[in-house]
Write a structure and sequence with these properties.
heterodimer; A: mainly alpha; 14 helices; 2 strands; B: mainly alpha; ABC transporter involved in vitamin B12 uptake, BtuC; 16 helices
């Protein structure tokens, strides 16, 4: 029954996206041209990758607000590496970015797992710490396009089968998550931990370690995206992707991932990210000031979470249910 | 707030030992430890910079924390009750924008005050209605309203700024009541006392603890849990409005990025003050001392020319550290006892 509900929620969201696209197309047909849609997808690729990582974290009853700072710090580190060693091959940079991101995720995860600190506190703290470290290592200076090597900048833009590498990374991440969530024991453990931590313990799942794994995953994706982001925009400085963590959480909440844990799907996170990406790209087209973006994503979060709650609410036995939760 | 297994640990928290006398309890308390830190920071600062021990400098230093502390008092109650409000800084932005808008229409100071407080109350009511009316988790709701409230400011202002506040409006952020005592500091002191009485000496304050410790038990014992929580969201919104008046008056201008990131500092102040982030325990005196500690640390760093972002690293580490250290210490003690 939950499954059919979830399915219907994804269908609702997909329908909303279609309606949105049709509404834009009725006045600006060029927006829905395949080449432009590919551009929109490419522009949304970082959001998709981070939303998937965030989904794993939220499903285990945690939240990771440090992803944007992680992305920015990793981006700065690889950009500095590139200016110091311009000859460094791309696979090495990808490896460094992913492992550095994973390391920062591990720091979050260990604080949550070993010290039992609430995830929101941990990641609010590490968010500012990671941002501050960017300032410390860069001295507040920018790394601009002319300081980066051409291969470093060109990699996310290279096209394979008509799509840029950045888009392919997002597609691969989605496919990877479909396998991880649907076909592996870790994927099942995420949901078990989030759905019922007590029962998870009795079935032999280490709750803390599973949550830590989700943080590492989210961190690794943030790190990888950090390189792609910096290379794509060809600039690295302290404030890149500032406030992006809220957009990532918004994408998850819109995608029907329950902040209380245990409920969520890869499709939901993907659609939530696409919804925000389309809105963001459509605003300048339909001639609305980009200053509306913040208020729109805020409203989208509130509407989505209200919608999630009303469709999740079970009738009757409310007090018992609450009692069970409070325990 | 839903968060990992810590929820369960909190639920099985030991009941405080009532047999120990008040003096013993005070000596073993978080507040005393914090007071020690405050004194240490004060002494270190006065050694580190010759300019620290100047009464006017110290008076200036209070502006670092008074506005944030005003919100932190209400936030402390909200967190003790088991909820959180991450939209406080955005409420400041919206209230300040509304006041700036009114100034353009020629509003005078009394009307500006009412607008500032009114917008704060409305925002708090909006948060409270979503959390208590629809039963939504406060973290997500206020992450949403954090974007929404500031987003409205951006829609209204874009890259512009409101200025031209009436000259008597400047009193709230720049005025002095007596010698080096600023109006803001007096307000901070009065509010500290009022909130301490509200939390520690009234039925409402008691209800806040009960709601945070055991919402089901509170409901069964006849406390109107949603009403208490709604009132706390209103209070937090109102205090954010008060802070918006002080800050706008002090800066004399409104930009949509006003008070950006303050929610983190307010929550840090509350947690540093010994309030359990999972709800159920904490005191106003603790928050007051924490406000002094944070204010003096940032001011001391400022005198030593440490950039703001480095201070934010420190605040981030402080936030994690003050929660992690007691847990580590407790674990070590438990291990030693075998």
């Amino acid at each position: 029954m939950t499954k059919s509900l979830l399915k219907s929620r994804e269908i609702v969201l997909a329908a909303a996206i279609l309606v949105l696209l049709l509404a834009i197309a009725s006045r600006f047909p060029a927006f829905v041209a395949p080449s432009n849609l590919a551009n929109v997808f490419n522009d949304t690729a970082p959001l998709i990758m981070l939303a998937l990582g965030q989904m794993a974290v939220i499903v285990t009853r945690c939240i990771d607000l440090s992803v944007a700072a992680n992305l920015a710090l990793t981006g700065m580190v690889v950009a500095m590496l590139n200016t110091l060693f311009p000859g460094l091959p791309i696979p090495v940079i990808l490896f460094v970015a992913t492992s550095l991101g994973a390391l920062m995720g591990l720091a979050n995860g260990l604080l949550v797992w070993k010290l039992d600190i609430p995830p929101i506190v941990v990641t609010l703290g590490t968010m500012t710490v990671y941002r501050g470290i960017i300032f410390l290592i860069s001295d507040g200076a920018w790394i601009n396009a002319h300081e980066m090597s051409d291969t470093f900048k060109a990699f996310p833009r290279e096209t394979i089968l008509g799509l840029p590498v950045l888009s392919w990374f997002a597609i691969l991440t989605v496919l990877g998550f479909v396998l991880l969530i649907g076909r592996t024991s870790l994927g099942r453990a995420f949901f078990a931990v989030g759905g019922n931590p007590h029962a998870a313990v009795y079935t032999g799942i280490n709750v803390g370690r599973t949550q830590c794994a989700a943080f590492v995953l989210s961190g690794a994706l943030a790190g990888l995206t950090g390189y792609l982001w910096v290379a794509r925009y060809a600039v690295a400085y302290v404030d890149i992707a500032g406030g992006f963590e809220l957009e990532v959480v918004a994408a998850c909440v819109i995608g029907g991932i329950s902040i209380a844990g245990g409920i969520g799907s890869v499709g939901g996170a993907l659609l939530g990210a696409l919804f925000l990406g389309i809105v963001k790209n459509a605003l300048p087209v339909v001639n609305i000031s980009p200053f509306w973006q913040l208020a729109i994503s805020g409203s989208a979060i509130i509407i989505a979470v209200a919608f999630n709650a009303t469709s999740n609410r079970s009738k009757g036995r409310v007090i018992l249910k609450k009692a069970e939760h409070a325990q | 707030m839903s968060s990992s297994l810590a929820d369960e640990k909190a639920a099985t928290r030991q009941v405080p030992d009532r047999l120990r006398n008040p003096l013993q309890r005070f000596l073993a308390s978080w507040e005393l430890l914090l007071l020690g830190v405050a004194v240490a920071v004060f002494v270190l600062n006065s050694f580190a910079s010759p300019y620290f021990l100047d009464p006017w400098n110290l008076s200036d230093a209070t502006f670092n924390f008074t506005e944030k502390a005003l919100i932190a008092f209400a936030m402390a109650l909200l967190i003790i009750s088991g909820e959180i409000d991450l939209s406080v800084a955005s409420i400041i932005a919206l209230a300040s924008t509304a006041m700036g808008f009114a100034v353009q229409l020629g509003a005078e100071t009394p009307l500006l005050i009412m607008i500032g407080l009114g917008v704060g109350l409305l925002c708090g009511a909006f948060n409270g209605a979503l959390v208590t009316g629809l039963g939504l988790p406060s973290i997500v709701v206020t992450i949403g309203t954090m974007s929404l409230f500031r987003g409205i400011s951006y829609i209204v202002l874009g890259d512009q700024a409101y200025t031209g506040y009436p000259s008597d409006f400047a009193f709230f952020g720049q005025g002095y009541v007596w010698w080096v005592i600023s109006f803001e500091f007096l307000l901070f002191a009065v509010m500290a006392i009022l909130f301490a009485i509200l939390l520690h000496k009234t039925n409402f304050g008691r209800a806040v603890y009960v709601v945070g410790n055991n919402p089901v038990g509170a409901l069964i014992s006849g406390i109107r849990v949603p009403r208490v929580k709604f009132a706390l969201f209103l209070l937090t919104g109102l205090m954010s409005g008060v802070a918006a008046i002080c800050l706008t008056s002090r800066l004399g201008a409104t930009r949509p990025s006003i008070a950006f990131g303050w929610e983190l500092e307010v929550v840090t102040m509350v947690v540093l003050g010994g309030v359990n982030i999972l709800g159920g325990s904490g005191t106003i005196p603790g928050v007051v001392i924490a406000a002094f500690v944070m204010g003096m640390v940032t001011f001391g760093f400022g005198l030593l020319n440490v950039p703001g972002i480095v201070m934010s690293i420190f605040i981030g580490l402080l936030l994690i550290g003050v929660i992690a250290l007691p847990r580590l210490a407790g674990r070590l003690l438990a291990a030693r006892r075998g």
